[in-house]
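Q: Give me a backbone?
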Amino acid sequence: MRAFAFRMAWRETRAAWRHFTYCFICIALGVAALVGVGLFAANMERAIQRETRSLMAADVELRTTRPLTSEAEAILRGFDGRGIARMHLSELVAMAAVRTGTQLVELKAVEPGYPFYGKLRAEPEQAVASLFTGNNVLAEETLLIRLDLKVGDTLKIGRAEFRIAGLVKKEPDRAAGAFSFGPRVLMSQQGLAATQLIQPGSRVAHRYLLKLPETLSPRAVQAELSATFPDKTVRVSTYQEAQPMLRRFLRQLTMYLGLAGLIALMVGGIGVASSVRAFLNEKLETIAVLKAVGAESRTILLVYLVQTLLLGLLGSLAGAALGTGLQLFLPPLMKTWLPIELEFRFALLPFVRGVAMGLLTTALFALWPLLDVRHVRPNLIFRRDVTEEPPRSAGRSAWVASGLLALALAGLALWQAGSWRAAGLFIGALIVALGLLLGAAWLVVRLARWRGQASLRLRRDERGVRGHRNPFGGVHGPPLPLAWRQGLANLYRPGNQVKTILVSVGVGVMVILAIHLVERNILWEIGENIPADAPSFFFIDIQPDQHEAFARLLASRGHAEARLTPLVRSRLWALNGQPIGRENYEEREHGWYFTREYVLTSLKDLPKDNVVMKGDWWNAGESSREPRVSVEEEAARRLGLDLGSTVEFDIQGAKVSGRVASIRKVEWGNMSTNFYFIFQPGALDGAPMTYVATARVDPSEEVPLQRAVIAAFPNVSAINIRDVLDSVARVVDRISLVIRFMAGLSILAGTIVLAGALAATRFRRIYEAMILKAVGATRRAIAQTFAVEYALLGAAAGVIGTALAVALAWGVGHWILDVKWLFQPEALAWSVGGTIMGTILVGLLSTYRILGQKPLPVLRRE
């Protein structure tokens, strides 16, 4: 039996290989997306593992935002006698100034011997050594372009002038990410001291790098430091944990790309089901003959199952090869986020996983139509010309197959996402979308039949009434033209492909449009939705003794309304008397609420756009035995705080506590200075603090104001909000470009499914077209009939897919990204219109040959 099944499957495949072209391409596209993403993730992980020490430039790193205490310094000096080399790096934001302008830069100060691992590359190469001889710096080429400088020119940073000795080409340990406040500038620690930028309370990231001898384990040193280091806010990590942001970003990105590829594969699976069903409809007589000569249903089912799996295997292998070729495109698209160079190497696991997914998807989607083979009766040979087989119930095995399909989909999503939550959201959203699309397809068929039959009744009405009342009230219009009647009839005729087309095209439209809507809402939220009175500049690191002079400078330039707010940097120490162990929260979702650095302030008045939701704001001059604090509502929820709770902060070794007096709702999008925690006036007196100033400045005044501030206060950095928002917008655009690139495969797969569905009904369409020709219809009339059908299908798919995209985008924005909803009628109109035009184009290209057929040969065959 098995030998017969394999021989028969091979013969059927050779004889009808053109019929399965669409099926082959659909599976290949989905597998290509999955294999492409999998190989990229594997090569990225391999590159990170290869350069782990280079990504940190050390074996062990200590990171903190405040200078080490004398006790902590003594512990590090104790490592010198154990053969451990150490180095101090400082990273901060500063202003670079020349006579022609100013520019915010990211400053990095290093010591001789940097880096321990990897290589700092500059142009020219000898410029690296010059960092430690005289006041020399290395700068990114972007800085030279913006300030119209060249190598050898001088610029001022803080209170010192520096010569640009060369261009920075690569830093092995630079934190990965597309967002930055400005171009990078490298200098020595002696040069940083000369700038006098670091003052008490300044925002500086201190990194202490350790290079260990081979006899010492990085994990052992990390455990020793974590146990003995006096400052528990210092983060100690090994090179195996280098670039956590990069790892997390790539893990999430590849998860989203993989799920987008999985959607493309699911759309391809719909195409498989459509192709298999159409093929079996053409093979009904063959199946009836096989049964008539004694073949069992199980044997015939095995024949076509083997054939389908063979095609699925070939399509999966072709898709895996295409996915391997995608490595030429994905890394360049994501080059902005990659601090390391990728070397493509073939990885077996993503390849095998993609092929397995393709095979499993093929089997699952083909199984339901294949089970119909059992219901084909031998007498169909004689009865098919005069009657059709009555529809039969699916049966228990079909329902078991559908259950397996659902479980397998969940398993595929979990395997691809690597997260129960993400997989659950994906499966839930896909089930809801498919259910709504299938329900809409049923409704479209019913409405088309009702309207078409009503039009026919009107044609036969001899009473001269131009309208027809329906049971629900209202009057139909006059009878429809021939093209519209035939187009509607095609939607509900036997063998129609409405469900297949609506589901495949609708899912593709939903994915692409939802991504676009989310992107536009984010860009609108961070750019175009800025309040009219939002500040255009933030001035940071203003020292307490500069507070009054800085306010006078702004007032003298017409900015008396500028606000100066005190800032105190701290770490959360205890909640309700219970100390916070950072190691207990670092791996938790939203654990950063417990481990992050908090910027505190003390204010007399409630900040702009803040609303007290619980409790009361303090009155001016009111005092209390224990300092009171107001908490932002989301932070209160995540930290488990309520009215009366106590919270304690560590401010450079000193502890400050307060009792929660109110919980506020904060409008983070107003571009003002907002805070999670606000203390009542006087509670933070004596703490090391700086000030931040906000000012709204006309574009023509921006450059003169920056020059005046830098000349009077070299340590103050001016952050232009517009530049920051532009940088964020570029990041969003680049990320969405990558995701759209993968999601576009869903549209491509949907287009191929559409073409395949139309090709599956080619013979029926030819027969109907020839009947119309025989009774006098022209090519134009038949083309109009097809165009009406495709337009109606496109309109239904476009409207339903657009509605689902709006719901999905709104849910993502509201529940995940917390951005306001922007209604975008132009995008929705383009989506529906583009779907209609695309469906008409693909439909006519798929069936235009029918128009040239001659009626007589076709009708003679019948």
